[in-house]
Amino acid sequence: MKKITIDPITRLEGHGKIDIFLDDAGDVANAYLQIPELRGFEKFCEGRPVEELPRIVPRICGV
Amino acid sequence: MAKLKLALYWAAACGGCDVAVLDINEKILDVAKLADIVFWPIALDFKYHHVEAMPDKSVDVCLFNGAIRSSEQEHIAKMLRSKSKVLVSFGSCACFGGIPALANLTTRAEIMERAYIEAPSNENPNKTLPQTKVSVPEGELTLPELYDNVLTLAQVVPVEYFVPGCPPTVDLILKVVNALATNSLPPVGATIASDKTLCDECDRKKEKKMISRIYRTHEIIPDPERCLLEQGLLCMGSATRGGCGALCVKVNIPCRGCFGPPAGVFDQGAKLVSSIASIYQTNGKQDIEKMVNELVDPAGTFYRFGMSVSMLKRRIPQKT
Ligand code: SF4
Ligand code: SF4
Predict the structure, then answer these.
(1) Is B229 left (phi over 0), alpha (psi -120 to 50) or beta?
(2) Number of domains in chain B
(3) Domain total in chain A
(4) In whole angstroms, what is the distance from residue B285 CA to residue B115 CA?
(5) Is the pTM of this model over 0.90?
(6) pLDDT above 70: residue B320
(7) Nearest by CB to B48, which of A8, A43, A61?
């Protein structure tokens, strides 16, 4: 199967990658969106003083 | 002068550094006059394969923001290094690890567990975690490897300049643009900000007053005229490079050190501890214990933006 990879996805905040698989007729058989990034706010915010979080979580997305 | 070829990239970042470049407003037109942008994912549709096809050293300047926490980010950093004549570590994540480097207080396994299994918004009964390779009926999908350790750009490739800040301020970005326009870049290795500490550019009254208690920010409303540290708030000014214009301190909020250590300071946290120790009133061991107990989350506070370049570097993962 032919695979077309769009990497990176542009003009948005964040990282993304799309793989499109084409069948023999050249039609789209399936497409996958993957996010090749994880920083881990879900975990590293734990243990930080709660009053500090308003200065940490804005860095989830600065756009 | 021939137009410069300029690349901008984000690794482990929030996009704020890219937006900061746009915050120079109409001056962006000067940048457009000065340079052709050859790669900038947030704004233009160039792909990795376009960069790969560029000859070595064909990019004049690359402003690289974001920390390095995956194999993909390391790969792109190496690729942009070989394509660029001048590589600039742009913003606190690239320079010191930034907020993403707080992940060094945990481990990759703990992050994966929390983000993909425990988080209440997940439904993942089979406890599936991201894999670097996975077979799907149509073929194979790949993902980069997430590292246990968050690194700075300079820990991965040699870098010519450092522009600190979360994000770098408009003034600093214009300084970089002007230096490029007039071909007057500083000596290689320079940090484009002040060489002094933030306290040097802070105009709050410093009275050499001792403190007998450390306060958390919600516990007092500080006097807007007096030094915050002398009011018992953990302000990182003495351990932080100047250059931001004391942005946080001006709005009555203690500095959290996003400009990194000043010139000549090896470790931001150690420097702050020495500042606290010099003004904390103690009459013996019990006062010292009291002070230590008043420091909530010292690692996450002293190294809020600088865990990757700190003496600690990371929490040592427990052997399993
Ligand atoms: S410790 Fe903070 S408030 Fe005090 S002088 Fe330094 S930057 Fe200003
Ligand atoms: S005051 Fe401190 S935390 Fe705030 S912008 Fe300046 S260096 Fe960064």
Answers:
(1) alpha
(2) 3
(3) 1
(4) 42
(5) yes
(6) no
(7) A8
Classify residue B187: in a domain, yes or no: no
Owning domain of residue B94 = 4-99+149-181
Query: Which one, of B279, B278, B277, B259, lies nearest residue B268 by Cα?
Result: B259
Sequence-distant (6+) residues with CB within 8 A of B260 are B92, B95, B96, B164, B191, B240, B241, B268, B305, B306, B309
Length of chain A: 63
Tell me: do B285 and B161 sit in the same domain: no
Interface pTM (ipTM) of the complex? 0.94
Does one domain contain both B267 and B226?
yes
pLDDT, one tens digit per residue, over B285-300 is 999 999 999 999 999 9
Whether B84 is in a domain gets the answer: yes
Same domain, B293 and B155: no
Q: Residue A56: enclosing H or E segment and its boundaries?
A: helix A53-56
* Cβ-Cβ contacts under 8 Å, B119 against chain A: 42
Whether B317 is covered by a domain: the verdict is: no
Alpha carbon of B201 to ligand 1 centroid (Å): 9
> Which residues are registered as beta bridge partners of B136?
B139
